[in-house]
Design goal:
The complex is a heterotetramer. By secondary structure, chain C is an alpha+beta fold. Chain C is built from seven helices and five strands. Chain C has two domains: about 60 residues, Arc Repressor Mutant, subunit A; about 80 residues, Glutaredoxin (3-Layer(aba) Sandwich). The longest helix of chain C is centred in the N-terminal third of the chain and has 16 residues. The radius of gyration of chain C is 18 Å and the shape is elongated. Classes of the chains: A alpha/beta, B alpha/beta, C alpha+beta, D mainly alpha. At the A-C interface, strand 6, strand 18 and strand 19 of A face helix 3 and helix 4 of C.
């Protein structure tokens, strides 16, 4: 396996104007789009012009002066990176005179650069070194006794990379990458002239600066000035594998760079359709958990959850698992068992788990973590548009004129897409943010929302309906679109409903706490500002009215004609890497893959024919129903792959009680997670680095996950499920995940065209990919809605029953932070804890003062569901009356607080609204102490018995 | 009550004009503060209004009021207009400077002010641009680009928002014409900008003035306020620089106005198409814009009639440095360097022989007296390896060390480099080091390494300094190679033109670099 | 305390001049004129007000010679070092000034009374060497003028 | 309608009643028969058979626990 490299063409592609020009480069005629730089033109035709400051993901800059060329009829030597091609131009890129000039420039560079190449971590992977060779530099006549910028101290504060100013050539690529690609503006050049130097913020240490550690600067650096610590430790990589990141729903493509079996670094891949060569701190750097010492590598069994674990052989674990499920089904009935699929595992693994349940357990008791995040998206978009997925690809945002973000925090939770969105905003698109919190998008360097509507948690439907009220009553809707694409009568019913005075911005102001004029302004902007695109997240779905909110969003898009082309649409930002895929794969108790109801006879017949068994036509149990049934004594065994419901699901007490009531809980995971504290069988899982498969990101993009290293536990996750299935007598015989995908394609019309050979050749495919859409579907509903006519749904605002009152006067809402991922099982086991070592409670200064709370104080957070303690962070990001925390740390167990209220249609929990009280506290709550005790007990492991 | 005219120009004030003015007020005179006429050897100049016109005395000290008032002062000049220094000029741009109260709208109007603007506004924009093209006006900032063509590009740019930017970042040593005009006739610049705005369809303008010119800043701000109604709807604003010479480069200036580091932008795009805030922008020097009202009021032909070759109109030449009669001398192109230095300037102030003159500021070439027959003309200077630049002439007597001046050119570039492009950023520092070696060798001292800024010292590096050939000839070759890299490799004129003073010093004064002097009269 | 005052001054000027990025230099001038220098707290406050990153503002502050990051002496003497003044003996006067004022070029005297700073051209090029003493221009600086300057900055 | 119990945990029966009523409230705007049919449809699509049987039984035991629309929907489920 070799090292896959990318060519850097030096400058961005030309903006498409359609016009081409023909010129001559070094005697060859070349025809390329107008606006292309000479440098890019030469590169595309195979001539590498020396360069150091140019990179094809950055605006051309023209500072290094190595790329000078000769243009007939022009004075001097223009820089090829900043000079566009022109009709009839005659360019020479390699002449004696140019060599002389380039050598002269390089001689200056090297006169201020250490000559320690042999001991430099970038030796062999250094652009400066390469270019010095390319221009034929043989001597530095300036000597080394003059002024230099060498000998400055290294900044090693960032846990993942070092900054060595001595090796800096001041090309500004890092600064420009931070500005243009990442949009954080954390870097600058300090000073001027010979003393110019790269500085983070106010010459702070990187860790203390505004840097978000996305790695764009490290990637941009042409020397070893900014370099990964791991490369310094390990040496340069010698082989690489292209794969897909396992954090978040953006689905970034990376080149995993290896030295033998050791992962050296993850470098974002320029051809990645979701990330275009960008990354965030998680994907770029936080992969160390894969080798963390707490990884469990041997299967384990115990008869009760109070016992220590006993390491056993794979055979014993598999046979035990299969026999337990059979025993329990025999004793308690077919419906007494079920499974949970993972949004972090591959499509293939997920498909196998639901197949195990449907084919092997003979019921539909399968659910997935999407239950607790985006199940309302599935319901809402299927009802209105006909497809349970977002309508656009990520690139679409670059065509948007108005971006409406509701209940999503992309710069933290989907950082790479957040950066793209900020690029578009800096180009002039307008932004509306509907969020109780003042997220970074509302105002951060160079980005400011036109409207921020800081609504009270739980009032989304009222807010969106009020916007609809403005659009309808002010006649800002797109009548032609509605008449053509929707049912006019349904629209009129809906229009009558939203037009009622009770739904006006003025009428709902007391409910939402947002000034009516702001709501009107936002509605007008969305309806009339050009291409309007809506992006939303869990702040929409995780409510009692999650499904209604999704449908209210769909209504707005249809009413304004903002659907069915680039730049518009309705776009759920998926939390986990494969939550879209997990849903697609038939993980819900009522649906087969491709969102087909289990009661559909034709679909069932197809699966029955393929799997050779009779399948249940009745929906199965959802996760909360399983837990209810368990506490009632009718549900006894659960197979959980890659999901930590104890930490992630609401009302921890209830989850714990449900799990504790079961006779066999099987957990397949990387670590002894919180759920495993209640498990009887632990099957070690493998990381995304250790297996083949596919993930499907938030834009329905199916991308390959490729094995970078052998599974540390000896088995890929799909193999383990196959072992269990076969121990139950199912007779599976997959030899590679591609065969699983072939089965998915054969059984799922929207995936009919998806095969590994195509994915390998084309990089990715966006479903539907089938005969009707052979190239996949970047934008949905172009000529018509998937369901035929778009359906307007009347969305009555039904307030949640979770109410504040004298005992619980504040509203808690929860979310996530850039440096951590979901329950934190992975990121807590990396150096990302440097940024976020604990969950904190954000509280407004006024609420803090009323309670005598100072910044950093330990506070008790109490709801009617439970109580926990954590430290307070006083901030105006949250409005008075609202508090906020993250759920990344099990020590805090934020979900002890959340209740079991949930979305009316899908039971997606209402994480975003909990009535709470906050007060000073001296230490952990009783629950925290008991739980810590139990977790300690439950993590004891007796070693594998020697004789095997 | 006697009306007395005394300059409030910064140079006059530096020579004590304020105290003189106070003394005349104390003596019961009505003192009118004007700009400076431009001859500093007679400042502070006091002009008494008489029926025979203004009678001048200068220089005058505060204690000499009586002598002036009774006509016995030893520095009696007579009718100032007839003074040889002034009478020999063609004052198109500086016609009012030194004569009017700079902030009197009435004075301005009484001296043919606003006629150009009214003429322009009565015409189509294209007609105004045509007039500028017909006048042959070329950018007075140094590059000499035809102003009319620049305006045409902006006029043709399809954009509703356009800007007029005046480059008043006059940082070249030896030049002060911009400063004098802004202090002495600020409405002239405002009128020129208003005409430009009408010509290209701009509604807002900025004047970027270096912070070293506090008097100019105050005068322009006051004049803008006073004339706001007259030039409305055109709006003007002064922006103050912050001590960065490189901001005189037009794209760096634009970045500076935008609130950024004053780094040079790569061109294209041209500012005329994507300039201030990305909009089409006319960016012209003070003298270019100040020439515009004359062209409109007196006609393009009147302007074009004066000049030499492709250099049309007048140039306000500034005589500076070690000069007897230093000051501003506005004259048609074509006058020779020697006439300016010896006849107008009167040779050195020190009385010693002239050895070198630097024309065009710190980036201009040094010329020896053997080249004094060079006519003042853009093309002629380019052919001679120099540039007119902003038409400042700095005169040095025979005590000058040209190696030190070459070193200073590099040092100045090192101090003022924006740091963006490599030839300028590193090359200027290396240039200083090379000249240091040459000077050391010239003085037969062993080559002494300059201080090593890095703490690592030379031990870390594989090549020790003693491998370098430090002989003057090797270092001179290296210096020439460096100049070649800087001249052709730099992003802007700062790095690109710094070789002019260095190479011209090397070429014309080799004896200062440890090489044999050129044979006398070799040029003949 | 100081940071609070800085924030207050910044906010006052932002109120007057606006929050556009192009107001950054005018704001830096205004704040420096009032407080005397641009410290880290000012950079923070300006970044927050103008919605820029701290790095943005830091880069600008450190680019321009005019902006000081620590207070100057009570009096500031700027002496021109450019060619026209050199042609008139500027180097000699510079050395004499450093001697007479007891402070090196580019430094502030240990008693904080006076800073001696270089300036490249004041536009008084025919009558050098030139100086700017607390904003007041002085031409033809000689030993006598230096003596007067030394007396003036002793106050 | 809200859960009053201090511990914050509903029994399964209470939860089923709560869910049925919640669905009914959210589908009430269509009105009467149409709403009842939609609620019944929803429950048939998403509830497993044991949950459906349980709600039918609960409706019989506690006739006042369900809202009129929810009750009408459950009657339809029972009839099928």
């Amino acid at each position: 396996m070799g090292f896959t490299r990318e060519t850097d063409h030096g400058t961005l592609p030309a903006l498409a104007t359609g016009a081409n020009v023909t010129l001559t480069i070094d005697g060859e005629h070349v025809t390329l789009p107008e606006g292309t730089s000479i440098m890019r033109a030469a590169s595309l035709t195979g001539t590498a012009i020396p360069k150091l400051c140019a990179s094809d993901n950055l605006e051309s800059f023209g500072s290094c002066r190595l790329c000078l060329v000769e243009v007939e009829g022009r004075n001097g030597y223009p820089a090829s990176c900043t000079t566009p091609i022109a009709e009839g131009m005659v360019v020479r890129t390699q002449t004696e005179r140019l060599k002389e000039l380039r050598r002269g420039v390089m001689e200056l560079y090297i006169s201020d650069h250490p000559l320690d190449c042999l001991t430099c971590a970038a030796n062999g992977d250094c652009e400066l070194q390469n270019q010095a060779g390319a221009v034929g530099l043989r001597d530095v006549r300036y000597g080394y006794d003059g002024a230099t910028n060498m000998g400055q101290p290294k900044d090693q504060s960032n846990p993942y990379f070092d900054f060595d100013p001595s090796k800096c050539i001041v090309c500004s690529r890092c600064v420009r990458a931070c500005d243009e690609v990442q949009g954080t503006f954390a870097l600058t050049i300090e000073g001027l002239g010979f003393g110019s130097k790269v500085a983070a913020s106010q010459d702070d240490a990187f860790l203390a600066s505004e840097c978000v550690s996305c790695g764009a600067c490290v990637q941009a650096c042409p020397t070893a000035s900014l370099i990964e610590k791991k490369v310094v430790e390990t040496g340069t990589p010698d082989r690489s594998v292209i794969t897909t990141c396992a954090y978040c729903g953006v689905g970034c493509t990376f080149r995993a760079e290896m030295r033998g079996e050791e992962l050296v670094r993850m470098v974002p891949w320029k051809d990645g359709k979701a990330n275009h060569g960008h990354s965030c701190v998680k994907g770029r750097f936080a992969w160390g958990y894969a080798q963390h010492k707490e990884r469990i590598l041997h299967p384990m069994i115990r008869t009760s959850i109070t016992e220590p674990w006993r390491e056993v052989s794979w055979d014993e674990a598999i046979v035990h698992t299969a026999s337990e499920f059979r025993r329990i089904q025999e004793k308690y009935g077919r419906l007494a068992v079920g499974g949970i699929t993972s949004s972090r595992c591959t499509n293939e693994e997920t498909f196998l788990v639901q197949k195990l349940v449907r084919q092997g357990f003979g019921n539909n008791n399968v659910d997935t973590c999407a239950r607790v995040c985006h199940s309302p998206t599935g319901y809402g978009l299927k009802t209105t548009f006909g497809t349970s997925a977002g309508t656009q690809d990520f690139d679409s945002v670059m065509q948007s004129d108005v971006i409406l973000v509701i209940g999503a925090n992309p710069t933290d939770a989907h950082p790479v897409f957040g950066s793209r969105m900020k690029q578009r905003l800096r180009q002039g698109a307008k932004l509306i943010v509907i969020d109780p919190r003042r997220t970074d998008l509302v105002r951060s360097p160079h980005v400011e929302a036109e409207h921020h509507l800081p609504l009270r948690p739980g009032t989304n439907v009222a807010m969106l309906t009020a916007m609809a009220h403005v659009i309808v009553t002010e006649e800002l809707y797109d009548e032609a679109f509605i008449r053509e694409r929707c049912d006019w009568d349904e629209f009129q019913d809906w229009a009558d409903f939203v037009s009622e005075a009770a739904r006006s911005p003025e009428a709902i102001e007391p409910l939402t706490g947002v000034r009516a004029e702001d709501v009107r302004g936002a509605a007008r902007l969305y309806a009339t500002g050009g291409n309007g695109a809506i992006y939303y997240g869990l702040g929409v779905t995780e409510h009692s009215q999650g499904s209604s909110t999704v449908m209210a969003i769909a209504n707005l898009a249809m009413a304004t004609g903002n659907i069915g082309r680039e730049g518009v649409g309705v776009n759920p930002l998926r939390g986990q890497n494969n939550v879209q895929g997990a849903c697609d794969m038939g993980s819900f108790p009522h649906e087969f893959s491709g969102y087909r109801h289990v009661s559909d006879d034709a679909t069932r017949a197809m699966f029955e024919a393929a799997w050779g068994v009779k399948l249940d036509h009745e929906p199965g149990l959802r996760i909360p129903n399983m837990l209810d049934a368990a506490t009632d004594g009718t549900f006894k065994a659960l197979f959980i792959q890659g999901e930590d419901i104890l930490q992630s699901d609401p009302n921890t007490h209830h989850v714990a009680a449900g799990l504790a009531a079961m006779e066999c809980v099987v957990v397949q995971d990387l670590f002894l997670n919180e759920t495993a504290n209640y498990a009887h069988v632990f099957l070690p899982g493998s990381t995304f680095l250790e297996k083949d498969g596919t993930f499907t990101n938030a834009e329905r993009r199916i991308q390959r996950v490729r094995k970078v290293m052998a599974p540390l536990n000896g088995q890929a996750d799909w193999e383990i499920v196959q072992l269990v299935a076969n121990a139950m007598g199912l007779g599976w015989s997959y030899s590679h995940p591609s065969e699983i995908m072939d089965e998915i394609a054969a059984l799922t019309p929207t995936f009919a065209g998806v095969h590994y050979d195509r994915l390998d050749a084309e990089g990715s495919l966006q479903w539907p990919a089938n005969d009707a859409a052979p190239g996949g579907t970047p934008t949905m509903h172009i000529d018509g809605f998937a369901r035929g006519k778009g359906k307007f749904i009347v969305t009555d605002y039904i307030p949640t029953d979770e109410k504040t009152g004298p005992r619980f006067p504040l509203l808690l809402t929860t979310g996530r932070i850039l440096s951590h991922y979901n329950v934190g099982a992975q990121t807590r086991r990396t150096a990302n804890t440097a940024w976020h070592p604990e969950d904190r409670l954000e509280i407004h200064p006024a609420d803090a003062e009323n309670r005598g709370i100072k910044d950093g104080d330990w506070v008790g957070l109490k709801s009617r569901a439970g109580e926990t303690t954590l430290r307070a962070q006083i901030t105006e990001r949250v409005a008075p009356g609202v508090v906020y925390t993250t759920f990344h740390h099990p020590d805090t167990q934020a979900n002890v607080i959340t209740t079991d209220y949930s979305d009316w249609a899908t039971n997606c929990p209402e994480y975003k609204v909990t009535a709470v009280q906050v007060g000073l506290s001296n230490g952990p709550s009783d629950w925290q102490e008991d739980y810590a005790d139990h977790a300690r007990q439950s993590r004891r492991i007796a070693p594998l018995e020697a004789a095997e | 009550m006697k009306r007395v005219f005394i300059s409030c120009d910064m140079a006059s004030v530096a020579l004590g004009a304020d105290a003189v003015a106070r003394a005349f007020v104390g003596a019961g005179c009505e003192v009118v503060r004007t700009g400076s006429r431009g001859l500093f050897s007679i400042e502070p100049l006091v002009e008494i209004e008489t029926e025979a016109g203004r009678i001048g005395y200068g220089p005058v000290a505060p204690c000499e009021v009586e002598a002036v008032l009774d006509g016995t002062h030893r520095n009696y000049i007579g009718a100032v207009d007839e003074h040889r220094f002034f009478a020999a000029q063609k004052r198109f741009t500086f016609a009012r400077c030194g004569i009017v109260d700079p902030l009197s709208l009435a004075d301005y109007a009484a001296h043919r002010g606003w006629i150009g603007l009214d003429t322009a506004r009565a015409a189509e924009p294209q007609a105004v641009v045509d007039a500028i093209r017909a006048s042959g006006l070329r950018g007075r900032g140094g590059a000499g680009f035809p102003t009319g063509i620049k305006w045409q590009t902006v006029l043709d740019a399809p954009c509703r928002t356009k800007y007029i930017v005046c480059n008043a970042d006059e940082g070249d040593s030896g030049t002060f014409a911009d400063r004098m005009l802004m202090e002495g006739d600020p409405f002239c610049l405002i009128e020129g900008m208003a005409i430009a705005a009408h010509a290209v369809g701009a509604s807002r303008g900025f004047i970027y003035i270096r912070s070293e010119y506090p008097f100019g800043i105050d005068a322009m701000r006051a004049a803008i306020e006073l004339s706001a109604d007259r030039v409305a709807p055109f709006e003007l604003e002064v922006r103050v620089g912050a001590g960065a010479y490189v901001c005189g480069e037009e794209t760096a200036l634009l970045d500076s106005i935008e609130g950024r580091r004053g780094q040079v932008r790569a061109k294209p795009p041209l500012p005329a198409l994507a300039g201030l805030f990305g909009k089409p922008t006319v960016i012209n020097n003070v003298l270019s814009l100040a020439a515009v009202p004359f062209i409109l009021s007196e006609g393009a032909q009147a302007y074009a009639d004066v000049g030499f070759g492709r250099s049309r109109g007048t140039m306000p030449v500034q005589l500076a440095g070690n000069v007897k009669h230093g000051g501003l001398f506005e004259v048609g192109f074509g006058i020779t360097l020697g006439e300016l230095v010896n006849d107008i300037g009167g040779g050195t102030a020190s009385g010693r022989p002239v050895r070198a003159v630097q024309v065009g500021g710190p980036l201009g070439a040094y010329f020896p007296p053997s080249m004094f027959d060079l006519p003042f003309d853009y093309e002629a200077f380019t052919a001679a390896g120099g540039l007119i630049g902003h038409a400042g002439i700095t005169i040095f007597d025979d005590s000058v060390d040209m190696a030190q001046m070459a070193r200073f050119a590099m040092e100045f570039c090192a101090a003022e480099s924006c740091g963006k492009c490599t030839p300028c950023r590193i090359g200027s520092t290396r240039g200083v080091e090379i000249v240091d070696r040459i000077i050391a060798a010239r003085e037969s001292e062993p080559a002494r390494p300059t201080a090593n800024n890095g703490v690592l010292g030379k031990a870390l590096y594989s090549r020790a300094p003693d491998r370098i050939d430090v002989s003057p000839s090797a270092q001179t070759t290296l210096l020439r190679d460096l100049c070649d890299t800087m001249k052709y490799g730099s992003l802007c004129a700062l790095g690109g033109f710094t070789p002019y003073p260095v190479l011209s010093a090397l070429d014309h004064f080799p004896e200062d670099f440890g090489a044999p002097a050129p044979a006398l009269e070799a040029a003949e | 305390m100081h940071a609070d005052n800085t924030k207050h001054v910044v906010e006052k000027w932002v109120e007057r001049l606006g929050t556009g990025r192009d107001q950054l230099l005018p704001l830096l001038h205004a704040v420096q004129d009032e407080i005397g220098f641009i410290d880290d707290a000012t950079v923070r406050a300006l970044a927050a007000s103008l919605n820029l990153s701290r790095a943005d503002v830091h880069g600008v502050v450190t680019f321009y010679h005019d902006f000081r990051r620590r207070p100057a002496g009570r009096h500031v003497v700027k002496l021109c070092r450019a060619e026209s003044c050199q042609a008139r003996g500027g180097a000699r006067i510079e050395a004499a000034a450093a001697r007479r004022l007891g402070v090196a070029m580019g430094a502030t005297r240990s008693d904080g009374q006076v800073s001696l700073e270089p300036v490249f051209c004041l536009g008084l090029c025919a009558i050098g060497p030139n100086a700017l003493v607390d904003g007041r221009p002085i031409a033809r600086v000689d030993e006598a003028a230096l003596e007067a300057i030394a007396q003036a900055v002793a106050a | 309608m809200a859960m009053e119990d201090e511990e914050g945990v509903m029994s399964t029966g209470e939860r089923l009643i709560y869910m049925a009523n919640q669905i009914a409230r959210n589908l009430a705007s269509e009105g009467g028969e149409r709403s009842a049919e939609m609620v019944a449809d929803h429950i048939r699509s998403f509830w497993d058979p044991s949950m459906r049987q349980r709600i039918v039984a609960l409706a019989a035991d506690r006739p006042n626990a369900l809202s009129p629309i929810a009750a009408a929907a459950v009657r339809r489920i029972a009839a099928a």
